[in-house]
Specification:
Strand content: 15-25%
Oligomer: single chain
CATH architecture of the largest domain: Sandwich
Radius of gyration: 61 Å
Length: 306
């Protein structure tokens, strides 16, 4: 009886211990499954986070590349005639191209690298803005200088035009005065004389050609000693002159004369005769005799010899 009671008690004790063990196993199993579930969820979340971060770095990388390319295009639009400034622009473009190439060659970027490149991008953009301001200032200054230069040129052209007009008026007046100063003549008479001083038209008898004229009044003319020059032209157009040194100025050139005579002119009418003495045999035909005073032709007459 006592032995049965003891066995029953032992059985109860073992059953009680077994129940506890089973319960502990169930608790451990459930806890493990819960831990597995939680760990899996955390792994998925971490994986998604990593994937999201990677996607974000790719987007940031492309964004930085786009910004750098845009900056290169903006630098291409910056125009200036300043050599030093152009050199600095080229240097900054080179920095951008180096950074762009560096980013393109990196397959993946960490958030720290992204942050670093963003700072570099911000610095480059700030430098570019400073260039824009400088170039705008230079362009504004150049426009003002161009406007001022155009104004000065217009004033210069106006003054030049006025000066040329005044010169034209002066030249016109000078020309008018010069013309007014020219001594004119009238009553020109030419005749051929023989050795006795009698009129002749025979070439074989002629010894002298007499040319007389009257210098008219001219108060504007230069007064004083004047030379009257005669040019005797033979029928063959040859100027009859005894010396190659007998020259005077006419229309800016030195031309030969046949004879001359000095006269005092005081602005009043002056009668004068000039003589040419034959120094070579003459032929028959038409002879032209021109008279000059102060480099101006004042009279022309013809003489026909037989």
């Amino acid at each position: 009886m006592s032995c049965r009671v003891i066995k029953n008690n032992n059985y109860k004790i073992m059953a009680k211990h077994s129940s506890k063990i089973y319960l502990l196993i169930i608790v451990i199993s459930v806890s493990f499954n819960i831990w597995l579930y939680i760990s899996k969820d955390e792994i998925i979340k971490e994986k998604d986070k990593i994937a999201s971060m990677y996607k974000g770095t790719v987007v940031e990388k492309e964004s930085i590349k786009t910004d750098l390319n845009d900056m290169l295009l903006q630098y291409d639009d910056l125009k200036t005639n300043n050599y030093t400034l152009n050199k600095r622009l080229e240097n900054e473009k080179e920095k951008i191209m180096v950074l762009l190439k560096k980013i393109k060659n990196i397959k993946s970027l960490s958030s720290q690298k992204i942050s670093l490149y963003k700072k570099e991008l911000a610095t480059l953009r700030k430098i570019m803005r400073s260039f824009v301001v400088q170039i705008d200032s230079l362009n504004t200054a150049n426009k003002k200088l161009i406007a001022k230069n155009n104004e000065v040129n217009m004033k210069y052209e106006t003054v030049k035009s006025e000066k040329e007009e005044l010169i034209g008026i002066k030249d016109s007046l000078s020309g008018t005065v010069a013309i007014a100063k020219i001594i004119k003549a009238q009553n020109a008479i030419v005749s051929g004389l023989n050795r006795r001083g009698r009129t002749t038209r025979r070439s074989s008898k002629l010894a002298t050609i007499k040319f007389c004229l009257t210098l008219l009044d001219n108060e504007l003319a230069v007064k004083g000693s004047k030379y009257i020059y005669l040019r005797v032209s033979a029928p063959n157009k040859k100027i009859l002159s005894s010396s190659d040194d007998k020259l005077f100025e006419y229309n800016g050139e030195k031309i030969a004369y046949s004879s001359s005579r000095k006269v005092e002119y005081n602005g009043k009418k002056t009668d004068i005769c000039v003589f040419w003495k034959k120094d070579e045999e003459l032929t028959s035909g038409l002879y032209y005799i021109d008279a000059f005073v102060d480099g101006n032709k004042v009279a022309t007459k013809t003489l026909t010899l037989k």
